[in-house]
Amino acid sequence: MNEKSFMEIVPRDSREPGCVTDPVSNASEAKSKAAWAGEDSLSLTRRYLNDVGFHPLLSAQEERSLSRRARQGEQAARQRLIESNLRLVIKVALRYAGRGLPFMDLVEEGNLGL
């Protein structure tokens, strides 16, 4: 292999002096980052579920009233409807949780639908 083809194949940053990497340390670093990411996502999931639980449920009359106001363009009414229906999204997501999709992906898609 001549120098020109070597330069085309090997990325520039790996040709720099002192760039030899240890695959074992890279793997352990990746596992460590994944563990932290998993822990963070778990705490964020718990926090989200707790936050959703604090939004009060609406009566049928309140829901109709908010719906009318939201259709007229009132942003606060629209926001209240969305926040109050987040519990419903979680309930539906729980039904589909064991079918191959991550729970939070189901919740995210449901929230987008609202």
UniProtKB/TrEMBL annotation:
Lineage: unclassified sequences, metagenomes, ecological metagenomes
Organism: mine drainage metagenome
Biased composition range(s): Basic and acidic residues: 1-16
GO biological process terms held by the UniProt record: DNA-templated transcription initiation
Official protein name in the record: RNA polymerase sigma factor RpoS
Membrane-spanning parts: none
Chain segments carrying region Disordered: 1-32
Domain called RNA polymerase sigma-70 region: residue spans: 81-114
GO molecular function terms attached to this record: DNA binding; sigma factor activity
Ranges for domain RNA polymerase sigma-70 region 1.2: 45-76
